[in-house]
Design goal:
Elements (H helix, E strand, L loop, with lengths): L1 E5 L2 E6 L2 E4 H4 L9 H5 L1 H9 L14 E2 L8 E5 L3 H7 L8 E3 L6 E2 L12 E2 L2 E7 L15 E8 L2 E2 H5 L15 E8 L11 E6 L2 E7 L7 H9 L9 E3 L21 E6 L3 E6 L2
Parallel strand pairs: 5-15, 7-12
Antiparallel strand pairs: 1-2, 1-4, 1-12, 2-3, 5-6, 8-11, 9-10, 9-15, 10-12, 13-14, 13-16, 16-17
The chain binds zinc ion.
Zinc ion binds next to loops.
Length: 276
């Protein structure tokens, strides 16, 4: 199943268009996305039983984040070996967890106002929680995941480093969390543990890797985080970025007004964000 947020309305994505969830369920679910995550098992049963005929054409410019107002947003630093190496940091023995404040989230085709000249790209696999996870073993982690999507952990490198290891503000300027284009459930993916991902700036590929190279895999992240605090329906986890960030270049390269940042993950899709 593919689920999209079309201008705030939960929408099932099918061949040729979309199905508005609130209309199709007679207001049982929707119109917002949170209502789907809040009753995830029942929502899946409803969605799986639907006739997959689209009722309208989806305008990509109206797509918003698949989980627009999560209670918690987690992000994991240094979670690919080659990225840790390019930053000169040691590989952490525990997930290096920070937050992106939820107001930073934006749509998969949204324009992003940079505001400062030191903004860097970070393509990431993003997890959205379906059912509450508390003290969950890695072997059962997937059962608590609604699905996967793409994220950009846009980072103001100067602000990120202004307060030592406290990254969160530098990752949370408005629009610094593009997400989408759709939430894709695990059954749609051939191997959710090995997804090619990458991003390009104005067509030049700058990051390219596979989620098979994650230091802490998705199930390990769920087990570790849910061992500390409950993960709630709709919560979002940015799982870390592979090597190829601009700040590791000599000289460093940052995003400029007019740049087009394209981000993709195998089996999920592509986002395209123009920088202003
Ligand atoms: Zn990141």
């Amino acid at each position: 199943m593919r689920l999209a947020n079309v201008a705030g309305r939960a929408t099932l994505v099918v061949d040729g268009g979309g199905i508005d969830v609130a209309e199709a369920s007679h207001e049982c679910f929707g119109p917002d996305l949170a209502s789907a995550y809040a009753h995830w098992a029942a929502f899946r049963t409803f969605a799986d039983g639907l006739d997959a005929r689209p009722t309208f054409e989806i305008d990509p410019s109206l797509l918003c984040p698949p989980s627009p107002s999560p209670t918690q947003v987690f992000a994991v630093g240094l979670n690919y070996r080659a990225h840790a190496a390019e930053t000169g940091a040691e590989l952490p023995s525990f997930p290096a967890t920070f937050t992106k404040f939820p107001s930073a989230l934006t749509g998969p085709f949204a324009e992003v106002r940079l505001g400062v000249p030191t903004v860097d790209w970070e393509v990431e696999l993003v997890v959205v929680i379906g059912t509450r996870a508390e003290q969950v073993d890695a072997s059962r982690a997937w059962e608590h995941i609604a699905g996967l999507t793409i994220g950009q952990d846009l980072s103001d490198r100067v602000l990120q480093r202004a307060a030592g290891a406290h990254f969160s503000l530098g990752k949370s300027r408005p629009g610094f969390g593009p997400m989408g284009p759709h939430l894709v459930t695990i059954d749609e993916l051939e191997d959710p543990m090995d997804l090619a991902l990458g991003c390009s700036v104005n067509g030049e590929v700058v990051q390219q890797s596979s989620t098979a190279d994650l230091v802490f895999s998705v199930p390990e992240l769920i087990a570790t985080l849910s061992g500390v605090l409950p993960l709630l329906p709709g919560d979002v986890i940015f799982t870390g970025t592979p090597s190829g960030v601009g700040t590791a270049r000599t000289p460093p390269r940052y995003l400029a007004s007019g740049d087009v940042l394209e981000s993709w993950i195998e089996g999920i899709g592509t986002m395209r964000n123009q920088m202003l």
